Amino acid sequence: MATSVAMASLPLGRALTPWSADRRLRFRSSGIAFASLEQKTYAQGIKISEGNGGLPKVSLLSPHGSEAEIYLFGGCITSWKVSNGKDLLFVRPDAVFNGKKPISGGIPHCFPQFGPGPIQQHGFARNMSWSIADSDNVEGDPIITLELRDDPYSRSMWDFSFQTLYKVKLHSNSLSTVLTVTNTDKKPFSFTTALHTYFRASIAGVSVKGLKGCKTLNKDPDPSNPLEGKEGREVITFPGFVDCIYLDAPKEIFLDNGIGDVINIQNSNWSDAVLWNPYMQMESCFKDFVCVENAKIGQVHLEPAQSWTAEQKIAIS
């Protein structure tokens, strides 16, 4: 049986060949047969359909009127609507749904690497097709569990056997996720990870509370040489470019999205947070979103058969 483990500061698992060396190994979601997906029976409140670009999409429908959409490509949640029909997530206008590039927006996965490093930016999990492992419905709340395993594409960058399970639960006013990574290899590995959540917003009115006192790694002005510091503000605003990591973040922070919503962002075992807005680097859309991310910046080290789990809950206050 897999055992749980906490964070350990050990080097990232070795990368074999550069991610761009053999693009022929890249797995594409177009290989998923809709017929096989549609023939299966899923729990109440879960529907499989063809989404943008012909990619398979999972819809979660709550009897309370809330909805969520998840693309199997990248295991990416692209929409979370509360009962009034308002979508609280944001997908960038330049997002491509072609099964070749990661979906830009929603809640993309960063795994097994957050940011730049030996393999492709933010790792490969957002650029692979996930499968449906299970579905359930608890007191009207639909729950879907997605699974990602190693294949030749992932092993061309990161030569380890693994299983990643991603459970998504929709409630009337919240969206919860549980991410579990298990080492199914015969050798240990290490990784970093994050949920790169894009929230719909009006950036001029955005504020984040709850991070005062955290140690910071500020990537402005030099992303390759972050400045260490300590957050002294009770209320963080976004008057310009922001790209900052908050280490040992609290288990709960609050986002005012500037368009009438206060979103409570809770976590268990993510440990760190990231705030990002590209400002004029994305002139066409920077005013319309903010990224508030739960992350694990320090290395997680797993011995064979060990697992690591982290939970996130985003809710309307």
UniProtKB/TrEMBL annotation:
Q: Which reactions does this protein catalyse?
A: alpha-D-glucose 6-phosphate = beta-D-glucose 6-phosphate
Superkingdom of this protein's organism: Eukaryota
Q: What is its EC number?
A: 5.1.3.15
Concerning Gene3D superfamilies, the annotation shows: 2.70.98.10
What is annotated as the active site?
H196, E293
Q: Which positions are tagged coiled coil? A: none
User: What InterPro entries would the database entry show?
Assistant: Aldose_1/G6P_1-epimerase, G6P_1-epimerase, Gal_mutarotase_sf_dom, GH-type_carb-bd
Keyword check for Nucleotidyltransferase: no
GO molecular function list: carbohydrate binding; glucose-6-phosphate 1-epimerase activity
CDD domains referenced in this protein's UniProt entry, alphabetically? D-hex-6-P-epi_like
Q: Which GO terms describe its biological process?
A: carbohydrate metabolic process
- What's in the keyword line of the UniProt record? Isomerase
Q: Isomerase: is it a keyword of this entry?
A: yes
Q: Which Pfam families match?
A: Aldose_epim
- What GO cellular component entries does it have? cytoplasm
Q: Which family does it belong to?
A: Belongs to the glucose-6-phosphate 1-epimerase family.
Q: What is this protein called?
A: glucose-6-phosphate 1-epimerase
Q: Which organism does this sequence originate in?
A: Musa acuminata subsp. malaccensis
